[in-house]
């Protein structure tokens, strides 16, 4: 008798969304719908939007419904609100009841409440880069995200942050799910190449990534191919490829 299948974790389900989505936008919308479903609970409906802040510009890049996008965009028009604060300052922002909220002036709370909503919970994603993002949850019940609901939202956001970080990082270079799949498959080889460069140059991980990225740019070669070439040359009998930090002379092996 086969053992019962274990339910997939949120991380596994989100990674499946990456692989199954037609493109980056489709993935983000599916992620927002998935997040809203996970956070609703008790049969209640919840709205969810995903805000991305890049180059000082904010946009809702995924939404569970048109209404979720509309209420997110209220904040952008006012240049303030919980999701912008959460993304910019990388901290949680909770609005238990919009009818009693005045942190962003009367316009924001009144505009969002006019959509029949009462509570808002915005949680930052930790993307570890220039881009910043936040998960925005809305409910038509006041104090919806108190106590256990807040803990569930924190756990969920933490669990899916890595998948979103990966998707956002490669969205600049990937326009389809095919490229996203290739990104996932190449992650290991790139990590190995980074380790090799760190050992060769006795440098930090950040510096090693910069070295490989510059080599990719200068040679007009994909980062994945640069990494594969480096790993193959180190492990094989041929000549060893060596990338060094810009401005350093004679720091390679045998120098």
Topology overview:
Elements: H1 10-20, H2 24-40, E1 47-54, E2 57-63, H3 66-78, H4 82-89, E3 93-95, H5 105-113, E4 119-125, E5 132-139, H6 147-171, H7 177-201, H8 205-219, H9 223-235
Antiparallel strand pairs: 1-2, 1-5, 3-4, 4-5
Helix pairs in contact: 1-2, 1-6, 2-6, 3-5, 6-7, 7-8, 7-9, 8-9
Polypeptide structure, described:
With 255 residues, this protein is α+β, with helices and mostly antiparallel strands. It has two domains: 21-171, Beta-Lactamase (2-Layer Sandwich); 177-235, Arc Repressor Mutant, subunit A. It contains nine helices and five strands. The chain has a five-stranded antiparallel beta sheet, sandwiched between helices. Strand 4 (119-125) and strand 5 (132-139) form a beta hairpin. Helix 6 (147-171) packs across helix 7. The radius of gyration is 22 Å and the shape is elongated. Residues 174-180, 237-242 and 249-255 have low confidence and may be disordered.
Beta-strand fraction estimate: 5-15%
Q: Name the poorly predicted regions.
A: 174-180, 237-242, 249-255
Please estimate the helix content.
40-55%
CATH class of the largest domain: Alpha Beta
Radius of gyration: 22 Å
Highlighted features:
255 residues, alpha+beta, Beta-Lactamase, 2 domains, disordered C terminus
Compact description:
By secondary structure, this protein is of the alpha+beta class.
């Amino acid at each position: 008798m086969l053992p019962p299948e274990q339910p997939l974790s949120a991380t596994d389900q989100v990674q499946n969304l990456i692989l199954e989505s037609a493109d980056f936008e489709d993935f983000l919308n599916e992620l927002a719908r998935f997040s809203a479903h996970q956070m609703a609970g008790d049969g209640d409906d919840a709205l969810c939007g995903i805000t991305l802040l890049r180059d000082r510009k904010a946009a809702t890049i995924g939404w569970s419904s048109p209404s979720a996008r509309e209420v997110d965009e209220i904040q952008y028009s006012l240049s303030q609100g919980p999701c912008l604060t959460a993304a910019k300052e990388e901290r949680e922002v909770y609005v238990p009841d919009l009818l009693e909220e005045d942190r962003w002036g009367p316009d924001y709370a009144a505009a969002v409440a006019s959509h029949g909503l009462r509570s808002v919970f915005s949680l930052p994603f930790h993307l570890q880069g220039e881009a910043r993002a936040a998960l925005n949850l809305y409910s038509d019940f006041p104090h919806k995200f108190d106590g256990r609901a807040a803990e569930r939202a924190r756990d969920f956001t933490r669990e899916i942050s890595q998948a979103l970080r990966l998707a956002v990082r490669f969205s600049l270079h990937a326009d389809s799910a095919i490229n996203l799949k290739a990104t996932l498959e190449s992650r290991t080889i790139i990590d190995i190449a980074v380790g090799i460069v760190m050992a060769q140059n006795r440098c930090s991980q950040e510096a090693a990534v910069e070295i490989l990225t510059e080599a990719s740019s200068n040679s007009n070669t994909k980062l994945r191919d640069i990494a594969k070439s480096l790993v193959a040359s180190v492990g094989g009998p041929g000549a060893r490829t060596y990338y060094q930090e810009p401005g350093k002379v004679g720091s390679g092996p045998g120098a």
